[in-house]
Specification:
The chain is of the alpha/beta class. Helices cover 39% and strands 15% of the residues. A seven-stranded mixed sheet has the order 4-10-9-8-7-5-6, with helices on both faces. A four-stranded mixed sheet has the order 1-2-3-13. The radius of gyration is 23 Å and the shape is globular.
């Protein structure tokens, strides 16, 4: 076989073939990948992407919920390069640190609510969730409660792709029979999706139902056996599920009564997606014990995650001074990633991107709501710059189309052909554009998506999948 240097991999076709021949992508569907390969991107600027053929796309997906300040920022590249030249790596195990790691930890403590003044850096959101789960076990044992290890989560949740992350999450399509999952000690309750509430329940009654379900599960397991409750403030990959307004605060109040830690998985929602630094306190009035975050922390420029946790947890774990917290990663507190995060947070503050996300996000969601007049669309929902368009076979029954109709994928493909990237998941098309999005961008997305949905609706009717 010729060496890599002997083979030229620089044409669009050669790059596409190299990717298809050698890369195992996250969530690969082997049949379609081996047949069609990947769409390969070459550059990005702001909210836009260009593929290797030079075609331009508006990235309404925001990478993967993460390109908050937009792509192609020279000052981000300069900050990364400067730190790489000054100190490209340093070990942060035990009692070693570096300047950007310390500065970023202090900045996150400043931005976080309540007494969440402690930070453990990870490599991504998945490893942050994995670490938070381990921290629960450590904290409860340090408190003299070794049986208080079980965790309550929800259906339609996504908490990452580590062993524990996928075990805590429960979303159709994420669990496959070829992998193993932790089956004991993790419990899933009803997703707080008002659109899928039992028939006849209004939002208030549905909230009462969810809180009663949590209380019943707690009684079944015994409060002395439950260590934590984990929740995305708004369930992202599960369908941008915005819970009833009082749901999280009422659950958190029960947790406080029984020393059950509240973990807010803000990997998606933190750093501006809903117009706030963090969604749990700002949207729902909940100060959690632990926040997991990543994605918007660096706007995707470099990998970095963090567990932000309370002084109370630190004090319990550190009591007596004899214990070791034996969890962490080679790249925990990586100086270049932390420098990227510091510059990213500076940009968000300096350019008022939280306020822009709030103003343009409200306009975007309002305009997207107009798509509900299309016969295929059951609901448009979300909060500001995290939104979802759900398709149904029947608006009254809310019955979905057969899986074989593949309508969300077809809508995404039609939009892609028109220069718009949206993310299909089941019967949903999800969007999370950069915080730099303008009203004009929002108009382009909504108008293009309307054309794509109309085109696919006509196709589904011709093929007999859709009668509406």
């Amino acid at each position: 076989m010729p060496s890599a240097s002997a083979r030229k991999i620089d044409s669009p076709e050669a790059i596409w073939q190299a990717d298809r021949r050698h890369v195992l992508h996250p969530w690969t569907q082997f049949g379609s990948f081996e047949r069609d390969g990947s769409l390969v991107f070459e550059r990005g600027e702001g909210c836009w992407l260009w593929d290797t053929s030079g075609k331009r796309y508006f990235d309404a997906v925001g990478g993967m919920w993460c390109t908050n300040v937009g792509l192609g920022r020279a000052e981000m590249a300069e900050a990364i390069a400067a730190q790489a030249q000054k100190l490209a790596f340093s070990n942060t195990f035990v009692d070693a640190s570096n300047v950007p790691s310390a500065q970023l930890a202090a900045k996150l403590a400043e931005l976080a609510p309540g007494d969440l003044n402690r930070v453990h850096f990870t490599t991504c959101g998945s490893t942050a969730v994995d670490t938070a789960w381990r921290m629960v076990q450590f904290y409860q044992r340090a408190k003299g409660k070794p049986d208080k290890t079980q965790v309550i989560a929800r259906d339609m949740s996504y908490h990452g792709s580590t062993y524990i992350g996928q075990s805590l999450g429960q979303r159709p399509g994420d669990r496959v029979p070829e992998f193993l999952y932790k089956e004991t000690g993790i419990h899933h309750l009803t997703a707080p999706n008002p659109y899928r509430a039992p028939e006849g329940m209004d939002a208030a009654a549905f909230c009462d139902f969810l809180v009663a379900e949590f209380a019943a599960k707690l009684a079944e397991l015994g409060p002395d056996n439950v260590g934590a409750f984990i929740a995305e403030p708004i369930q992202a990959s599960g369908g941008v599920i915005v819970p009833p307004q009082d749901y999280l605060s009422r659950i958190a109040a029960i947790c406080r009564q029984h020393d059950i830690l509240v973990i807010a998985d803000e990997v998606v929602t933190a750093f501006g997606r809903t117009g706030h630094w963090f969604a749990a306190p700002s949207e729902f009035g909940v100060v959690p014990d632990i926040i997991t975050c990543a994605k918007g922390l660096t706007s995707g420029y470099l990998p970095l995650g963090a567990v932000i946790f309370s002084d109370r947890i630190w004090e319990a774990m550190a009591e007596g001074g004899a214990r070791w917290f034996t969890s962490g990663f080679t790249y925990s507190g990586h100086p270049v990633s932390c420098a990227a995060a510091l510059k990213n947070l500076e940009i968000i503050e300096r350019e008022g991107l939280l306020a822009n996300a709030a103003e343009v996000g409200d306009y975007f969601l309002d305009r997207l709501k107009s798509l509900e007049d299309l016969p295929l669309i059951g609901q448009v929902r979300g909060r500001r710059l995290m939104v979802c368009v759900e398709s149904v076979a029947d608006k009254v029954s809310k019955e979905p189309l057969p899986e074989a109709a593949n309508e969300a994928r077809r809508i995404a493909d039609a939009a892609e052909a028109m220069g718009l990237m949206v993310r299909p998941m089941g019967h949903l098309n999800v969007m999370s554009p950069p915080l730099t999005m303008t009203r004009e961008d929002a108009d382009f997305v909504v108008d293009t998506l309307r054309r794509a949905i109309t085109q696919v609706t006509d196709e589904l009717r011709r093929e007999g999948w859709f009668k509406g």
